[in-house]
Amino acid sequence: MKKWYERDDVAIIRVPDLLGDMEEYRKSRSEARSPDSDLLTVEEAAEYLRCSVTEVYSMTRSRRKARGLAVLPAHRVGRKLLFKRSEIDRWLEEGGKK
Fold it and tell me: How far is the C-alpha of 41 from the C-alpha of 78, rounded, in Å?
């Protein structure tokens, strides 16, 4: 009798193969979006602004406006926060003022 790992009907997934498939999938998803796409995720906005993700979140908070600080323009789509590259550029040109 064959051992369980020698049987043909048992699918064995090696971790490196699985990780490779996941990386390939992630890469294909990021390539599917145009690098010139106007919509940015929080992570992409942070990279674009050269700051941390935490700083991006803090720049979108409405309490900044109450303190006289500029609020980074953002759009909520479901639970996601998205940013238009053109609005970020305009915000930066105005010196971070609304």
Answer: 13
> Do 83 and 39 contact (CB within 8 A), yes or no?
yes
Query: Per-residue confidence of the chain (98 residues) as pLDDT tens digits?
Result: 666 556 665 555 555 555 666 677 666 666 555 555 689 999 999 999 999 999 999 888 877 776 777 789 999 988 899 999 999 999 888 876 54
Q: How many angstroms separate the first and last alpha carbons of the chain?
A: 74
Counted residue by residue, the chain has a size of 98
The phi, psi pair for 90, rounded to 5°, reads -65, -45
Domain total of the chain: 1
Question: Locate tokens 């602004």: which residue?
Answer: 49
Tell me the residue range of the domain where 60 lies: 4-93
Does residue 98 sit within a domain? no
Amino acid found at 16: P
